[in-house]
Design brief:
Radius of gyration: 18 Å
Distance between the termini: 24 Å
Strand content: 15-25%
CATH topology of the largest domain: Rossmann fold
Largest sheet: 5 strands, parallel
Strand order of the largest sheet: 2-1-3-4-5
Helix content: 40-55%
CATH class of the largest domain: Alpha Beta
């Protein structure tokens, strides 16, 4: 699941992003309304966490414009304003839910999961590549009926692959979308995690689904 976090406080944005990454989500960040709208219009996201008080363009205007352009990704509003009128304004602008600062991260996660469940059910319940299955609702993985236990980081890498079957995924793409710091120097770490992922997915007699593309990166092969 890919989440866009829009928050002008880089400290709070970093906290939210780290927490989501630890839960296995893929996260991008934006720090003003214009950047957020551009990213939401040009890249696919499963959910947007959107602060209201933003530089350049406030969150309410961003939300209204996205809805007017037919972008119906779930939006979870963040704000320090807690009056009923403020909540109604946010929801009327097109938001799906509303969280007041300061908030408990556990509550934010619960609301995020609820929105994703509601949005996923009519679209896709599972990703399947050959005999490999990933369920984004339960966050479980199976290979030929055998459950595969993954760490949060391994799960995030595999989900990134399974959303792009037969597509070359570079180390830079993984570094920018699955890790919570600059990509520089991560190449070896990514290789280590991919090797661990292969060992868990592949067993004796099973064809390896994650292929190394020499000089480019990796590809999840559709049998």
């Amino acid at each position: 699941m890919k989440v866009l976090v829009v928050e002008d406080s880089r400290r709070l944005a970093g906290i939210i992003k780290r927490g989501l990454l630890e839960e296995g989500y893929t996260v991008d960040s934006a720090y003003d309304g214009e950047e957020a709208q551009f990213m939401a219009e040009t890249a696919p996201f499963d959910l947007i966490i959107l602060d209201i008080m933003l530089p350049k363009k406030d969150g309410l205007a961003v939300c209204r414009d996205l809805r007017a352009k037919g972008i119906n990704v779930p939006i979870l509003m963040l704000t320090a304003k807690d009056s009923v009128e403020d909540k109604v304004t946010g929801l009327d602008a097109g938001a799906d839910d509303y969280v007041v600062k300061p908030f408990a991260f556990a509550e934010l996660l619960a609301r995020l999961r609820a929105l994703l469940r509601r949005d996923i059910l009519p679209r896709v319940q599972k990703y399947e590549v050959g005999d490999l299955t990933l369920d984004p609702l339960s966050r479980e993985v199976w290979r030929d009926g055998r459950r595969v236990d993954l760490t949060s980081k391994e799960y995030a890498i595999l989900e990134y692959f399974m959303r792009r079957p037969n597509t070359v995924v570079t180390r830079t793409m993984l570094g920018e979308n699955v890790w919570d710091y600059e990509f520089d120097g991560l190449s070896n770490i990514i290789d280590v995690y991919v090797r661990r992922l292969r060992k868990k997915i592949d067993r004796d007699g099973e064809a390896s689904l994650i292929q190394t593309v020499r000089g480019a990166g990796y590809r999840l092969r559709v049998p």
